[in-house]
């Protein structure tokens, strides 16, 4: 039997035992008992966002004459503790809870109210002089606060972590593209030899993927910036001052530097997770791009003797407990696992958006919030780590350039002059005999040595008719 000291606290359903020193109250404790599902909790970014919403709500309610000066001041100060992370241990509700996130909203209301009561010299759990519903939740509903907190937290996280991490990776890839630009190697399509390409051009392609990934993230932030706050229970705004949402949202925008705005259709914004689904879809696309980049890098580095080995990947740790000297592309592998997690998270978010949106409210919000925020954080960290631990240290080997002269697809440059069929015959004979295209073409093409040298110049084939670097930028 537990010897933990408790206090008996009352909520709308009656009395309930709560740990004596807890900042949360009976409503939160009921949720803890009701949802012993996992160890997953909504992350710091979400708690920061809901604390900020509660703080700005108190500021606006004070300005509108809806909240007593002393009570508002205490709520503002206690909400700051939530924003700063000083009360994170008091947010105990499982992610798998009521689908509206009401338990988490009440967790915030009770923590902020009890801390405010303490600041005013009162007793935790007394619900006086600060009440979690009447004062902290004034003008709000879980149904508009929780989706607003999700969107605010996600917009901040994507802006400050995802996009910043991607910018680091893009810069790293562009620098590596410049460094590797002189290296000419055999291109590959269908994993078969193709016409020559610069190693720097391959890396320019990766940099272009990341540049476009950043744009997709910026578009996601723009979608998230349309906030449902002010719709209260069902989108009608019942129980709130008409000026409340626009004023609170203006404060959020000024504080966070993101152009948040009140939705012009609360019924749409509140009954769906469309903005969250959109943002998650953008992160999925970014994850797919990062998977391609990481997979290509480990493929180009496979070996070091029995594979392609056109690049050398930085050696960061031993690769085997039994094979001495083995080194694996572990940074790339970590990126591919992040991509798998993000793609899986997006499937969950999409399901939540589709299956959870019933009439006036989505009822799968907490898990959608958890997965979206996890995806944003993972991508930012993985992008930065890929740049620092892998891309920056990549070097070219001699393998790529050494095979260019033996490349069968050099015959592509002959086709406009001698015809496709004749060029194909030269390629087939070169492959069959083990000779180079140049050697066979001397005998079969009727072209002199100067013309062959001009046509079979691998460097020229990397810039047909325009500057290849400009074309890829």
CATH architecture of the largest domain: Up-down Bundle
How far apart lie the N and C ends?
A: 68 Å
- The CATH fourth-level homologous superfamily of the largest domain: Fumarase/aspartase (Central domain)
**Which regions contain 5 or more consecutive residues with pLDDT less than 50?**
467-473
Strand sequence of the main sheet, in spatial order? 1-2
CATH third-tier fold name of the largest domain: Fumarase C, Chain A, domain 2
**Which secondary-structure class do the elements indicate?**
mainly alpha
Write the layout of secondary structure elements.
Layout: E1 6-11, E2 14-19, H1 26-34, H2 44-63, H3 69-84, H4 102-119, H5 132-136, H6 142-180, E3 184-189, E4 192-198, H7 199-224, E5 226-227, H8 244-256, E6 261-262, H9 266-271, H10 274-300, E7 311-312, H11 330-355, E8 357-358, E9 361-362, H12 365-389, E10 395-396, H13 399-404, H14 415-418, H15 420-433, H16 437-444, H17 449-455, H18 458-461, H19 468-472
Parallel strand pairs: 5-6
Antiparallel strand pairs: 1-2, 3-4, 7-10, 8-9
Helix pairs in contact: 2-3, 2-4, 2-6, 2-8, 3-4, 4-6, 6-7, 6-12, 7-10, 10-11, 10-12, 11-12, 15-16
What does this 3D model show about the protein?
- By secondary structure, the protein is mostly helical.
- It folds into three domains: 22-138, Fumarase/aspartase (N-terminal domain) (Fumarase C, Chain B, domain 1, Orthogonal Bundle); 158-396, Fumarase C, Chain A, domain 2 (Up-down Bundle), CATH 1.20.200; 405-472, Ribonucleotide Reductase Protein R1, domain 1.
- 59% of the residues lie in helices and 8% in strands.
- It has 19 helices and ten strands.
- Helix 2 crosses helix 4 (102-119) and helix 10 (274-300) packs parallel to helix 12 (365-389).
